[in-house]
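Technical annex, item 7. During the second reporting period the consortium partners agreed on a shared format for inverse folding records so that results from different sites could be compared directly. Each record opens with the tokenized structure and is followed by the designed sequence. A conforming record, contributed by the partner at site C, is shown below for reference.
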């Protein structure tokens, strides 16, 4: 993990990343597209979004309710809508939400969008699916663009996420999160456990550079 963090924070990589994303870039998956704006997490130079999309492609979403928490580029939300689901998409970045609204309108998909820091502006609702592709590198984000990568020095993102999520986890909710082998899985799972949550691995995918895992997040149940 340390090697990848050094790569992400390395001055040369950062200069290339911000140079490449100094202007909007188009990202396409299965003939569905989105426009990746500067300051928004890009699926173009990463693998997690593609792995997550490939898994979502195997799920029957017609007439299902979907929440994408932290939608970033919005490609997962648009793809989910293309499969016939009723989608709510949130992000802390106003630019991400504005871009998603434009891309979904252009492709004639109806997506409810909300600017929200995690669940703070989302009313409790029994979604059929919640999709989360989180930031997981332990570093304090300096600005809105770094919030897409870094979860805080003490994993504050996950502390808040796992504290807020239980009211949204019903018996029928499938809350799926993708994480990489390069993140601190042990620490993240420990934070979940402290909030009476468990991870159930439902898929894993080895790519050229890393292995990604898709987990279902469930509430722990204890015998009375």
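Designed sequence (site C submission):
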């Amino acid at each position: 993990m340390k090697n990848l963090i050094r790569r992400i924070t390395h001055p040369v990589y950062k200069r290339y990343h911000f140079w490449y994303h100094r202007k909007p870039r188009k990202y396409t998956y299965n003939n569905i597209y989105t426009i990746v704006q500067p300051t928004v997490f890009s699926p173009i130079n990463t693998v997690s979004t593609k792995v997550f999309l490939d898994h979502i492609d195997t799920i029957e979403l017609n007439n299902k309710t979907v929440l994408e928490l932290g939608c970033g580029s919005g490609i997962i939300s648009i793809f989910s809508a293309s499969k016939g689901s009723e989608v709510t998409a949130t992000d802390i970045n106003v630019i991400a939400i504005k871009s998603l609204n434009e891309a979904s309108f252009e492709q004639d998909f109806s997506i409810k969008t909300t600017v929200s820091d995690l669940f703070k502006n989302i009313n409790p609702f029994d979604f059929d699916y919640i999709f989360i592709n989180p930031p997981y590198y332990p570093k304090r984000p300096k600005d809105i663009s770094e919030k897409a990568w870094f979860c805080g020095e003490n994993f504050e993102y996950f502390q808040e996420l796992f504290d807020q999520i239980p009211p949204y986890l019903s018996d029928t909710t499938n809350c799926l999160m993708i994480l990489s082998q390069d993140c601190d899985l042990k620490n993240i799972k420990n934070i979940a456990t402290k909030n009476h949550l468990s991870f159930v691995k439902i898929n894993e995918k080895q790519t050229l550079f890393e292995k990604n895992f898709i987990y279902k997040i469930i509430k722990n149940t204890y015998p009375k």
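Confidence is low (pLDDT under 50) at residues 1-6. The CA atoms of residues 135 and 149 lie 5 Å apart. All partners now use this format for quarterly exchanges.
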